[in-house]
Amino acid sequence: FLRATMERGKRQEDGGLGSVLDLLLANARLVLGVSGAAVLAIATLAVKRLIDRATTPRDESDPKAEQKTLEESWQDLALIKATPKPPKKQRREDLSEPLLSPAQPPAPGEAQDPSVCSAPPETPQVEPSPPRCLTLQEKLLSHYSSRLVVPEAQASLALQLARTICTQLQNSLRSKCPELPFGSLFLSGPLLDGLGALKADHLHLMLPVVLDTTLWSLIPGEDTVVRNPRYWMIKRTDLEYFPRGCSPWDRFIVSRYLSSNVLNETLHKMLVASVNWPAIGSLLGSVIYPVVASTELKLEVKHHQLELNITLFPVVEMKDKVLLAAPLEGLVENLWLESFYRAEVSKVKELDGGDAGARLHCLRILNGVCKSHPTLRKLSGSPLTHVVLHLSATSLDWAEESLADRFQQVLEELVGHLEMGVLPSYFNHKINLFSELLEEEIDEMGFMLYRAITEPELLLKEE
């Protein structure tokens, strides 16, 4: 009787648990959906098995019963883990939408559950307006203001360092070479004159060589051994009446000509060995040293705020010619290069002053573009200035509003000159400013500029 009563109680408990599970499973589909109901059913089955095994007395006489029970437990656990997880949904309390799908609105007249809040209207997304396309004029002015304006403090420091070095070098020359009538050193270059400085990192130091015009004469470039109208020779005259030694510069004569090479070699030795650069550098809070392995006369100045290169040029001025001791590379000696830099700066500023033009702006942009582009680097400086001067004779509108038109026109002119391989000097049409360019260099420059005529922005890309 007692055993029968216990079995009947167990059946009632099982029936009660089964009723609860059946009710839960019946409503699972409504609340959780098909996938959720399937997951709950499998989990419930596993739990029910675990409860049955826990309440069923084990047969101690069967040694394999315990092992069988463990295997069934791992199978149930694997069954739960292997069940595919339903799509992740937000909890009901986090949702503001009603239980009904938007596709099934409540019937007319049916009251809506006040406990369910309706979803707020979505905030319309405002698409960002497309970036405004800048005109070439705006791009040029932006390029000029962002990349070509040297900070005033930087420029001032560079000039201050260069002027002090200029004074110290002048004193050294007078003490080491008192017999040579050098003129007063002076500074030059784009940083001072505004034609194309990108930053305050380079200046020219001009050293005048004062000649007695009764003892020296100029030989035109066409009559020199190189037949190049830009390179001149300076000849010693009247040696019969004024023998060697009458001029302090006679020590630099080679075959009756004043040799730019010999003069440069003498100055190079003095810069390297005779000037106390460490003392001058300490005075300026800098490190100064001459570049030994250079054919040019160069000084490098390292200050904690900037690095500055200074190039020294001996210069002769005779008969309105400005000649630099910058000989042609090769075996030819004694040549002096005619420089038009001073005339270029003067003419451009004169034209801009006459019509309030933007030639200087245009030149600085062009020089900046060419110096920062490896293919176009050899076009910077004089070639660009001479193209602008040629155009000024035919294109009279150089106002700032026409900067983009003039910029493109300069590119077109350059392409035309590169096609012919000839760019005549504005001051002497016998001189071809492209004479020292290689054919491969001309082809590469021409191709690049030809593309830039239709796409000028190619030249304004940040490097």
Task: Give the proportion of residues in helices.
Answer: 40-55%
- Reported by name, the CATH topology of the domain at 152-338 is Beta Polymerase, domain 2
Q: Give me the CATH architecture of the domain at 152-338, please.
A: 2-Layer Sandwich
Low-confidence stretches: 1-6, 73-111
The counted number of beta strands is: 11
What is the residue-mean pLDDT, rounded to a whole number? 79
* First-residue to last-residue Cα separation: 101 Å
Q: Helix-strand pattern, N to C?
A: HHHHEHEEEEEHHEEEEEHHHHH
Main sheet record: 9 strands, mixed
* CATH domain class name of the domain at 152-338: Alpha Beta
Strand content: 5-15%
The radius of gyration is 45 Å
Domain Mab-21-like HhH/H2TH-like: 360-445
Domain Mitochondrial dynamics protein MID51-like C-terminal: 156-344
Biased composition (Pro residues): 121-131
Membrane topology: Single-pass membrane protein
Structural notes for this entry:
The chain starts with a helix and ends in a 9-residue tail after the last helix. Strands 1, 2, 3, 4, 7, 8, 9, 10 and 11 form a nine-stranded mixed beta sheet that branches. It has a two-stranded antiparallel sheet with strand order 5-6. With 463 residues, the chain is an alpha+beta fold. It has helices at 2-55, 65-82, 136-147, 152-176, 190-193, 260-273, 277-284, 341-355, 359-372, 382-392, 403-420, 439-454, and strands at 186-188, 202-208, 216-219, 231-236, 253-254, 257-258, 286-290, 297-303, 307-318, 321-324, 336-338. Helix 1 (2-55) packs across helix 2 (65-82), helix 3 (136-147) crosses helix 9 (359-372) and helix 11 (403-420) packs antiparallel against helix 12. A hairpin with a 3-residue loop joins strand 8 (297-303) and strand 9 (307-318). Among the domains are: 152-338, Beta Polymerase, domain 2; 342-459, Poly(a)-polymerase, middle domain, CATH 1.10.1410.
